[in-house]
């Protein structure tokens, strides 16, 4: 018996080593994923690249942006696999990157990624400051979507037109102006500790943009019709509230709190949190104000909190109207670029877990109590799925693990680097030479989170399948904070 019991002890000890190794690998994966997620933004940069650029296959691009309109609009980010600079999703990306820093700067610092996160934000906010030359003027797009999508070229040698489109008092766009205000306000908090002067500058522009959005109301696609088929806005009330709550967080000015509390519209329980729909984010931030005792737990404040919590209940399958899940356990919101909604939902669950834990409070869902630990477990399940714990054994973050998408729908990544082969790739020729080539992209788009698998956990690794294989800056931004929290 002694020998068998000692062998059992030996097996258990060996199993413990294996489990510890697995756990260690997972922990390392979160850190590697965090590093990769911030590298992704360097691949999406437009403009004159800095000397410390880490993604070496990219070069300078779009150096004349804004010139025809008499303004310098060089810089910022390409939103996805194409080369248009769309201000609406870019601003949301920056808000989410900044929120990640606001919540998790100690964790980012501990993993030596805080400076990289701030650099990623600043590349975008520097551009937003340029795009806002007057209180009631904001440039919201550079490039033409139709002609851009008609070419398959590297950004470094684009020949497509680069018109600049703006909103102003006569041609308003409350959604994009308010989202830009939110981005700059959130970023002002992120930079407050390290660069007070820059923080103040961001906040000044944020205040002006909020007033512009509030005083000249309208949907931006009515002022810039071409944007409608790419990033059409479904409304602007959510962005106005989103800007107000971030401005309150940045300033402590009760006027912004009064605007939020006086809205009379808490948004209802949402079906997603995205570049177009900020209500769930507003609700979670308002819920923190309730938890912190900054506002009373009644009226519209109670509505904000309960509706934000109901969104999370639905994520955890404990709500009135639970979100769909794939057989492998992934939340499923939409057939096109589903993972952008998974990363945002996961971010809200992660930050709200921390808000609740600080107050030792649970959520009362229809399906039972949800503890802060349940929210983190849920977030972790979604992150683990995205990073490879799924029926395909594939990481949907490019460059992470041994199996990941190799044919990302992305012009720059799919064409040999101009530094490797400077032979020009013409507009239409790029389709035959590279787009339709059934081979891995020559450049690895490190850190990109693709659109992801379908409702049955199936993924087609083909460049032509943009529903699944395209990435976007808004896909990755929420993931930065979540990974910092888990790493």
TrEMBL record:
Record flagged with keyword Signal: yes
EC number: 3.2.1.4
Reaction(s) catalysed by this chain's protein: Endohydrolysis of (1->4)-beta-D-glucosidic linkages in cellulose, lichenin and cereal beta-D-glucans
GO biological process: cellulose catabolic process
UniProt superkingdom: Eukaryota
Record keyword NAD present: no
Active site location: 409
InterPro entries in the record: 6-hairpin_glycosidase_sf (IPR008928), 6hp_glycosidase-like_sf (IPR012341), Glyco_hydro_9 (IPR001701), Glyco_hydro_9_His_AS (IPR018221)
Pfam families linked: Glyco_hydro_9 (PF00759)
Family: Belongs to the glycosyl hydrolase 9 (cellulase E) family.
Protein name: Endoglucanase
The organism of origin for this protein: Cucurbita maxima
């Amino acid at each position: 018996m002694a020998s068998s019991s000692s062998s059992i002890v030996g097996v258990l000890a060996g199993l413990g080593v294996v489990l510890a190794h697995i756990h260690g690998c997972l922990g390392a994966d979160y850190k590697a994923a965090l590093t990769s997620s911030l590298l992704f933004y360097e691949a999406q940069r437009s403009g004159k690249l800095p000397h410390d650029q880490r993604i070496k296959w990219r070069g300078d691009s779009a150096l004349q942006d804004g010139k025809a309109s008499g303004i310098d609009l060089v810089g910022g980010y390409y939103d996805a696999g194409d080369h248009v600079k769309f201000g609406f999703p870019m601003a949301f990306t920056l808000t989410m990157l900044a929120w990640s820093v606001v919540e998790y700067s100690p964790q980012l610092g501990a993993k030596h990624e805080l400076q990289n996160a701030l650099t990623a934000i600043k590349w975008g906010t520097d551009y937003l400051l340029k795009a806002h030359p007057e209180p009631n003027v904001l440039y919201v797009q550079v490039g033409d979507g139709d002609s851009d999508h008609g070419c398959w070229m590297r950004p470094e040698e684009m020949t497509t037109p680069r018109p600049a489109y703006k909103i102003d008092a006569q041609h308003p766009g409350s959604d994009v102006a308010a989202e830009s205000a939110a981005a700059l306000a959130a970023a002002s908090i992120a930079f407050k500790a390290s660069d007070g002067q820059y923080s103040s500058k961001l906040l000044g522009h944020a205040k002006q943009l909020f007033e512009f959005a509030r005083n000249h109301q309208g949907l931006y696609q009515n002022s810039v019709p071409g944007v409608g088929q790419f990033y059409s806005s479904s409304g602007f009330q959510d962005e106005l509230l989103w800007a107000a709550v971030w401005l309150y967080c940045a300033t402590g000015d009760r006027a912004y709190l009064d605007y939020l509390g006086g809205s009379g519209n808490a948004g209802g329980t949402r079906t997603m949190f995205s570049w177009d729909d900020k209500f769930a984010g507003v609700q979670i931030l308002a819920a923190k104000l309730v938890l912190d005792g900054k506002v009373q737990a009644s009226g519209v404040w109670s509505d904000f909190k309960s509706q934000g919590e109901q969104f999370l209940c639905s994520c955890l399958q404990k709500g009135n109207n639970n979100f769909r899940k794939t057989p492998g356990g992934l939340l499923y919101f939409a057939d096109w670029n589903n993972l952008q909604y998974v990363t945002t939902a996961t971010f809200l669950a992660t930050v709200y877990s921390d808000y609740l834990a600080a107050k030792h409070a649970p959520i009362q869902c229809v399906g039972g109590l949800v503890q802060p630990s349940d929210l983190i477990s849920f977030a972790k399940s979604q992150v683990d799925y995205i990073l490879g714990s799924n029926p395909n054994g594939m990481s949907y973050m490019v460059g992470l693990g041994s199996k990941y998408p190799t044919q990302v729908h992305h012009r720059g990544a799919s064409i040999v680097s101009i530094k490797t082969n400077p032979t020009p790739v013409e507009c239409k020729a790029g389709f035959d030479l590279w787009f339709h080539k059934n081979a891995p992209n020559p450049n690895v788009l490190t850190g990109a989170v693709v659109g992801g698998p379908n409702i049955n956990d199936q993924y087609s690794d083909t460049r032509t399948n943009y529903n699944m294989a395209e990435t976007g800056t808004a896909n990755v931004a929420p993931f930065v904070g979540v990974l910092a929290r888990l790493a």
